[in-house]
Specification:
single chain, mainly alpha, about 5% strand, elongated, disordered N terminus
């Protein structure tokens, strides 16, 4: 929690004092982080939908119908994830403290690595599912 003092400063629970602009920067960065997590959830769910398509269509539909539908979900989901990550990295580059130090929350590099790990895991799961579905 923060409390506002008479001088326009905000005191944090730890006792440090932030100006209104510093507090706004932190809120902006945290909002960008929350937005990225929402985009990651949505994109990865869409990508995973590619495997669900194959399961729902089952053996009633030929593989030449199932594969493009699953691929479309994967492509759209991954594009959404990569676009969200790109926007997050852009925001992270612009938001810095006045002394040039990045805010002490999750850096863009860490988010990039986590995103690529998630995408690789989803890809492996979907590929294994597709291989199993076409046997």
């Amino acid at each position: 929690m923060t409390s506002t003092s008479d001088a326009g400063k905000h005191q944090t629970e730890g006792g440090s004092t932030l100006s209104a602009s510093e507090l706004a920067e932190q809120r902006t960065y945290l909002a960008a982080e929350r937005t990225l997590f929402a985009v990651l959830r949505t994109g990865l769910a869409i990508a995973a939908g590619g495997g669900v398509i194959i399961s729902l269509l089952g053996e009633d539909w030929p593989s030449w119908v199932q594969a493009p539908l699953a691929a479309a979900f994967l492509i759209v989901g991954y594009f959404l994830v990569l676009h969200g990550l790109s926007r997050y990295r852009g925001i992270a580059e612009h938001i810095k403290r006045e002394d040039g130090q990045r805010l002490a929350i999750m850096p863009a590099r860490t988010m990039t690595v986590l995103t690529w790990v998630l995408e690789a895991a989803i890809t492996i799961v979907v590929v294994l599912f597709v291989v199993g579905a076409f046997k």
